[in-house]
């Protein structure tokens, strides 16, 4: 089947697919193709002008063309499998999506489906052969360590796993550390901006997906990867070794504000602030971490309708000014993902003077 497509180098394939998904441009019914050192990604439609600008900004190299693609092999949906094991009146409440981290699936269930949790878990394992354990969310992410309660509903084995993303491997315990596979595109997007020689402060690093990918992509950098959770720092150190970035990524067990005040003031060319529920409280520390001549902030927060990008931008600008610095330029403001009806996680990239 001939379709419009995006041609990218192999090294950019996963980043390009994540971007196309976020823009609604990926044709999911066709297989990705390969031609020499390039990957051909089928498009659902030709891009619009704003979407082309987004592609140009986020991808270092690509071409738009047409190619023939093979259809994906159809497999039953989760809903189709569940229709065999739960009451018909509950099918509308069945989960349409779930996260897969390594070989573990994490799903959110409505209370009405809890008596059928084992059927849901078994259906997910039947649908995804590499999944060995299914966990159900028992509440929202909360607390200083950003954890949520998780209950096994199918499969077996420990909650430790190895997750692969953008050519890196990340060891983690999904029950004791924070990690979101839904931020895969953000990890790659931010890493693509880092240049050799930069000093980065990753204020809420978790197991290291931002810092480690930056070091792998940019080469000669120093990223101070801070987290208050000792279990996260344990896995971060393991991932630094596993991805061969020892010396480039420095794990720091500390509150982010305390770490900046103690040793990281005035060092950073770039600061990553991926703690959307509380990042605004740390803007002063982020500004202190930046070099006196300024640098880049990647600020994540939650914001609501009607204009979450504007709300997030205003929050950052106000907080930077209160810290005694100035937002010289807003480089980007975009919705990362929906977190509730009419509420989103938003990222603002800003140049601060």
Give short descriptive properties of this protein.
30% strand; four-stranded antiparallel beta sheet; 17 strands; seven-stranded mixed beta sheet; 28% helix; 353 residues; 10 helices; GMP Synthetase, Chain A, domain 3; Rossmann fold; Alpha-Beta Plaits; alpha/beta
Helix-residue proportion: 25-40%
Shape: globular
End-to-end gap: 51 Å
Separate helix tally: 10
State the CATH topology of the largest domain: Rossmann fold
How would you name the CATH homologous superfamily of the largest domain?
Answer: Vaccinia Virus protein VP39
The CATH class of the largest domain is: Alpha Beta
Poorly predicted spans: none
Mean pLDDT: 93
Major sheet details: 7 strands, mixed
Number of beta-strand segments? 17
The Rg value, from CA coordinates, equals 21 Å
User: What is the domain total for the residues?
Assistant: 3
Instruction: Please trace the helix and strand order, writing H or E for each element.
Output: EHEEHEHEEHEEEEHEHEHEHEHEHEE
CATH architecture of the largest domain: 3-Layer(aba) Sandwich
How is this structure best described in words?
It is a single chain. By secondary structure, the chain is an alpha/beta fold. It folds into 3 domains: 2-68, Alpha-Beta Plaits; 78-157, 2-Layer Sandwich (GMP Synthetase, Chain A, domain 3), CATH 3.30.300; 182-352, Vaccinia Virus protein VP39 (Rossmann fold, 3-Layer(aba) Sandwich), CATH 3.40.50. The chain is built from 10 helices and 17 strands. The strands form 4 sheets. It has a 7-stranded mixed β-sheet, sandwiched between helices. A 4-stranded antiparallel β-sheet has the order 2-3-1-4, covered by helices on one side. β16 (327-340) and β17 form a beta hairpin. α1 crosses α5 and α5 (184-191) packs parallel to α6 (209-218). The protein starts with a strand and ends with a strand. The mean pLDDT is 93.
């Amino acid at each position: 089947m001939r379709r419009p497509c995006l041609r990218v180098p192999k090294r950019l394939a996963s980043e390009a697919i994540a971007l196309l998904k976020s823009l609604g441009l990926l044709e999911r019914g066709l297989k990705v193709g390969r031609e020499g050192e390039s990957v051909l990604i089928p498009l659902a439609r030709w891009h619009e002008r704003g979407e082309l600008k987004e592609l140009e900004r986020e991808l270092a190299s690509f071409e738009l063309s047409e190619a023939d693609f093979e259809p994906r092999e159809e497999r039953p949906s989760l809903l189709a499998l569940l229709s065999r094991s739960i009451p018909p009146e509950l099918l509308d409440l069945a989960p349409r999506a779930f996260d897969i981290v390594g070989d573990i699936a994490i799903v959110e269930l409505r209370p009405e489906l809890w008596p059928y949790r084992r059927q849901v878990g078994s259906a997910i394992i039947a649908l995804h052969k590499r999944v060995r354990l299914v966990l159900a969310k028992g509440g929202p992410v909360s607390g200083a360590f950003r954890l949520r309660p998780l209950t096994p509903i199918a499969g077996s084995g420990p909650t430790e796993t190895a997750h692969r993303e953008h050519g890196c491997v990340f060891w983690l315990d999904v029950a004791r550390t924070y990690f979101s596979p839904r931020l895969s595109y953000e990890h790659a997007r931010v890493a693509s901006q880092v240049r050799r020689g930069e000093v980065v402060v990753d204020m809420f690093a978790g197991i290291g997906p931002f810092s480690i990918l930056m070091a792998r992509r940019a080469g000669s950098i120093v990223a101070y990867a801070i987290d208050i959770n000792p279990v996260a720092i344990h896995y971060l150190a393991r991932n630094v070794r596993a991805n061969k970035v020892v010396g480039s990524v420095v794990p720091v067990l500390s509150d982010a504000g305390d770490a900046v005040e103690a040793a990281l003031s005035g060092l950073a060319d770039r600061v990553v602030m991926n703690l959307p529920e509380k990042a605004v409280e740390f803007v002063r520390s982020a500004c202190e971490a930046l070099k006196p001549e300024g640098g880049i902030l990647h600020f994540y927060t939650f914001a609501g309708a009607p204009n979450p990008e504007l709300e997030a931008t205003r929050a950052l600008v106000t907080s930077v000014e209160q810290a005694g610095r100035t937002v010289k330029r807003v480089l980007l403001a975009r919705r990362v993902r929906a977190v509730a009806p009419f509420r989103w996680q938003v990222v603002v990239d800003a140049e601060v003077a």
